[in-house]
Amino acid sequence: MKKNILLVHRAHRFSPNCVERDAAVLSAIQQALEASDYAVQHMDEDAITEEFLHTAPPMIISMARSRVALLKLAEWERREGNCLWNAAKALLVNSRTEQTKRLSLANIPLPPTELTNTPQATALRFPLWVKSGGGDAETGTDVRYFADKQELLDATFPQSCAYVVSEHVAGDLVKFYGVAGTSFFYSYYPTSFSKFGLEKHNGSPRGYAFDTEALRQLATKAATLCGFTLYGGDCIVRPDGTLALIDFNDFPSFAPCAHEAAAAIVQVAEQAGSKIWQ
Known about the structure:
Elements: E1 3-9, H1 19-35, E2 38-44, H2 50-53, E3 59-62, H3 67-77, E4 83-85, H4 88-92, H5 96-105, E5 113-116, E6 128-132, E7 143-146, H6 149-154, E8 163-167, E9 172-179, E10 185-188, H7 212-226, E11 230-237, E12 243-250, H8 258-276
Parallel strand pairs: 1-2, 1-3, 3-4
Antiparallel strand pairs: 5-8, 6-7, 6-8, 9-10, 9-11, 11-12
Helix pairs in contact: 1-8
């Protein structure tokens, strides 16, 4: 018997400069699912309707980011037996501001950080980063680097918006990906692709020694706190080997390891499906 599953595609506005990379990982997931005897359906997040979800498969792997789509998926998710990755209910409460609060309270190592509505009034040291406190980075202005106070004072920010301001941490930038509930974890030094070109501020990696198991444990803890099964992020390795988490995301493109991640995602589906398909 074929096992039905739905892949929900992320709207292009939530994948700046990453549309092809997102499509590539969904293709890899489809191939891995079909090899495990799944019948795979596709849908764009903006096309999701409540009517469709009443007849949707009991398992959905979703890249959706819009609040409209997530509210519909969260309602579908509450029905008995339905499985959704990542959980819509987790995404709905994981604005950058709320996520920063949660990680900080759990003593996840972050850069010195302030949550504010007035970035120009920050007491943090320069250089620093100003990130919109809402959801994902849709444009290059949602994440900005400021080398000094004058640059920050010359910038304009929409009023009555929340921002996360963090000190720049010198060291090696390391990207990582994981799938909770599996042994899959992948980390690497980015060398070419850059969504907005911001990695240049970290320079070339020096190869500072660090504990890869400590990074995996840090990422796993962050994923648990955020409620993410499919996750990725950025971490800085300081010259002394200590770590600072600077970004944490749901369902990244897994670009350098798409097929390995796809195999782990199928493993998650199989574990959940053992009750559905019995």
